[in-house]
Inverse folding.
């Protein structure tokens, strides 16, 4: 079945780095744009980043630009999020999500498949 | 990019209809017919309920419907049921990015 499984979360000190992974199965991963979305404890959803199906374009929320890098390996059906210079406000559950719609060939921010999420806690 | 504005809570009795608003700007909601809605139960991942303002993915009940006027999108749940109690989020395309709403807690009385 179509599935996304995140991993790599944990407790990390402020200023350190962490890399999240999202393993895809049950669909042709290389044909889909992919996103990261996060949710701080007790808070709402926040869009983090998007990468096009072939990795040719990447966009970020202002809150993570310059610190986070989204990437993918289509040969391994895996999406990544490299998080550097982590701050307490980055503490959240991080979800990977598949793009379900396109606008002018661009991912249109409609997320049709979600992973179960991985928790990242930034604390000293 | 500021979050879209949703009411913090909406409630209704079983069988009733409720509507959740989602207000953005001319840079997001007002510029594109690309608003989606998500249902999230506690401790669970969000679920896509509506995309492109008013389209329902396969398997989503037709009790859920969406619309848009100007910079405001709306989600209507008709025939409210106990299982509809959850948090709901809108999301708009904003030029290669996404922006979510602040979220609305729906309570079934």
């Amino acid at each position: 079945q179509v599935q996304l499984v995140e991993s790599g979360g944990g407790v990390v000190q402020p200023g350190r780095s962490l890399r999240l992974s999202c393993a895809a199965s049950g669909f042709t991963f290389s044909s889909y744009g992919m996103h990261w979305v996060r949710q701080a404890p007790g808070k709402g959803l926040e869009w983090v980043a998007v990468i096009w199906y072939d990795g040719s374009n990447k966009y970020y929320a202002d809150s993570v630009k310059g610190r986070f890098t989204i990437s993918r390996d289509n040969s391994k059906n895996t999406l990544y999020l490299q998080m550097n210079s982590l701050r307490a406000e980055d503490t959240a559950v991080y979800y990977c999500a598949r793009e379900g719609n396109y606008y002018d060939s661009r991912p249109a921010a409609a997320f049709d498949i979600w992973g179960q999420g991985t928790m990242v806690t930034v604390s000293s | 990019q500021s979050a879209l504005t949703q009411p913090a809570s909406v409630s209704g009795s079983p069988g009733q209809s409720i509507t959740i608003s989602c207000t953005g700007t001319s840079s997001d909601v007002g510029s594109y017919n690309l608003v989606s809605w998500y249902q999230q139960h506690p401790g669970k991942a969000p679920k896509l309920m509506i995309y492109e303002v008013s389209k329902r993915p396969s398997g989503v009940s037709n009790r859920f419907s969406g619309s848009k006027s100007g910079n405001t999108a709306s989600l209507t749940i008709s025939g409210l049921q106990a299982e509809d109690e959850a948090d709901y989020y809108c999301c708009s395309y904003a030029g290669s990015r996404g922006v979510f709403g602040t979220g609305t807690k729906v309570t079934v009385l």
